[in-house]
Amino acid sequence: MKQLQVFILLVISVFVSSCSTVLNSPKIDYLTSNYCQPTIDYDYSKLEVFPNKSANHDSILKANLSQHDILISNAIGIETYLTEYLQTKKDTLKRLVLKQKITDRLILTSIEINALASELDCNGERINKLANFVNDINNKKTRNLTVASVTIGALTTVATVLIKNNNSSDIVGVSGGLLSAGLGALTIAPKGKKINLKLQRNLLRNIWFNDNSDGAYPNSIWAILNEKQFSNSGKNDLQESIKNRWLQYNFDGKIDTETEKLFFYDGGIYTADDLYSRANMLNELQATVRSLEQDLKSLSVRLNSI
């Protein structure tokens, strides 16, 4: 009977210890804090803003620039400067001042692109480190369960031979077999450890809901992301294309309410696989943002030829 009690306690302890738990440690606390977020708010209130351009502006720009470059100039707010620059032929000082203003705005937009991409890159690295940390713990747990399963199987065999009482021997054999089988099952489909990740600034949310009301994205970048002509297909804008890729490749074409809340609201309990998915989405978005430099290059090249 004593042997039976020991085996029952073993079975209970193994299954209790194998339950999925939320990890807590200084490493987790450090990586779950968003150290990638900008430390200051950017003040755009002093930037010169122009009224809606006139039909005359349109005709001048169309005569000198491609539709792509006109859209870029509109997104970054230099169409008025450009129109004046193109109309000014003899006043070299005025042309120089206008050219400098255009160049300054191009540089600012490039800085905005790189600042946003850097934040996305930082978050991608941070979330990937979290995923690796959780995954390493889960792998260690799986190895321990495998060793325990083999050990219990061997001990059960020895115990059934050494115990002379037939009833006790049978009970130990059955209990040990069940315990070994349970451990084996846990190695096949371990529940795994999880972490609680809160999202105060969620750059994926703006893309998913096509909403930049919080101003997380600079207006220039947001305008480019929402213009169809800046995508290769020309059918969907970049924001739509990114969302569609996430839906197909990260969520297999459909997403339930709980998963949507986890990724695109304020966070929650993440598995290692969830964290890897989030890191991949951040890296994909970062690559798209960085690619906007190509659009700026097109306009810059044209400006240096007129």
Question: What do you see in this structure?
Answer:
This protein has 306 residues and is mainly alpha-helical. The protein has a domain at 20-36 and 111-141 and 194-298. The protein is 69% helix and 3% strand. It is built from 12 helices and 2 strands, in the order αααααααβααααβα. It has helices spanning 2-17, 26-32, 55-64, 67-76, 79-87, 92-162, 166-188, 203-209, 219-225, 238-249, 257-264, 272-303; strands at 195-198, 267-270. A two-stranded antiparallel sheet has the order 1-2. α4 packs across α12 (272-303), α6 (92-162) packs antiparallel against α7 and α6 packs antiparallel against α12. The protein starts with a helix and ends with a helix. The model has no long low-confidence stretch (mean pLDDT 84).
Give the helix/strand layout:
Blueprint (H helix, E strand, L loop, with lengths): L1 H16 L8 H7 L22 H10 L2 H10 L2 H9 L4 H71 L3 H23 L6 E4 L4 H7 L9 H7 L12 H12 L7 H8 L2 E4 L1 H32 L3
Antiparallel strand pairs: 1-2
